[in-house]
Design brief:
This protein is of the alpha/beta class and about 325 residues long. The chain is built from twelve helices and 14 strands. The chain folds into two domains: about 200 residues, Rossmann fold; about 100 residues, Alpha-Beta Complex (UDP-galactose 4-epimerase, domain 1), CATH 3.90.25.
Length: about 325
């Protein structure tokens, strides 16, 4: 039996990860949320839910004690573009919040998964097939908190034995909860506009490549890493994982294969563009493949077919 707390359970990753964990484990899988972002529908009905504000250490500790939690998925974060607008809040959630989670985990012997991101890399990092162990010098607050988060999580493992693990997520593409505030969000929005029959106005310039991943692979990565044999892990915080890399032209043309009337124009957003240009074109995920058998299932074409069919069945307006 596993008892899991998901902090940020109603966000893009949390809303799907919580349901996946409930299918997989028969313990208490607690959906942590903040007021204003309450769980609804299946997420609310299929298991316990509690207010858990990551900035409140005591609140986290009370829920961990109440449900005898052994694993925390810490999904609270501001994404890259919004973190540039609210850097103080990004720090409070990303660093102070993580510190609270790690302290509770240390006292209550919990394992912790905290997503990292391709945002840990910066302009001096090798751009193509970015290695696992390389320069991490972001110039965004999001990247700073993600590098800090990786270091702090490794510190808690080395110093206190807290079982911390993480992956560097690329842009995540999904059809249930929207991302909101990221640099890679365009690769989600483009599907919604295609299905609604609208022209897509792309905020990222043609020729800008970034790693992306379909949500089922991302969920699988998080769960598979947390279940991995610890004796095989050379790395912990955080593993490069990859499944596809494309620029706006490539994803547009792939969607157009199935929606021939679809059109796109560019209105480049300077903030998102500068962040995108500082990130790698593609990551080398060899260490994840060797240390815990990471292997993605979806490529661009299989993802496009699934996204379009799932969104079409929702009759979007
Ligand atoms: C973002 O664009 O901020 C995120 C990320 C790649 O971490 N999707």
């Amino acid at each position: 039996m596993k008892n899991v707390l998901i902090i940020g359970s109603t966000g893009q990753i949390g809303s799907e990860l919580t349901l996946e964990l409930r299918k997989r484990y028969n313990g208490n899988i607690v959906a942590g949320y903040i007021p204003g972002a309450e769980p609804k529908g299946e997420l609310l009905e299929s298991g316990p839910a509690e207010v858990v504000d990551i900035t409140n250490e005591q609140q986290i500790a009370e829920v961990v004690s109440k449900y005898k939690i052994d694993t925390i998925y810490n999904l609270a974060a501001l994404l890259s573009a919004v973190a540039e607008i609210k850097p103080q809040l990004a720090w409070k959630i990303g660093m102070d919040g993580l510190f609270n989670v790690l302290e509770v985990a240390r006292e209550h012997h919990c394992a912790v998964f905290t997503p990292s991101s391709i945002g840990v890399f910066g302009n001096n990092t090798p751009k193509d097939k970015t290695p696992q162990d390389t320069i991490r010098n972001p110039r965004t607050m999001y990247g700073v908190t993600k590098v800090g988060g990786e270091l702090l999580s490794d510190y808690y493992y080395i110093r206190f034995g807290v079982d911390t693990r993480s992956v560097r997520f690329p842009g995540l593409i999904s059809y249930i909860a929207p991302p909101g505030g990221g640099t890679t969000d365009y690769a989600v929005d483009i599907y919604y506009e295609a299905v609604k029959g609208n022209k897509f106005v792309c905020p990222i310039a043609a020729g800008t490549f970034m790693d992306m991943m379909y949500m089922p692979d991302a969920l699988h990565a998080a769960i598979q890493l947390m279940e991995a044999d610890p004796t095989r892990l050379v790395h912990r915080n955080a593993f490069n994982i990859a499944s596809m890399s494309f620029d706006p032209e490539i994803i547009f043309n792939n969607i157009k294969k199935y929606v021939p009337e679809f059109t796109m124009e560019y209105a480049v957003d300077s903030l998102r563009q500068s962040i995108a240009e500082s990130w790698p074109n593609s990551l080398d995920d060899t260490c994840a493949r060797i240390e815990w058998d990471w292997k993605p299932t979806y490529d661009l074409d299989t993802m496009t077919k699934d996204m379009l069919s799932k969104l079409k069945s929702r009759n979007l307006k």
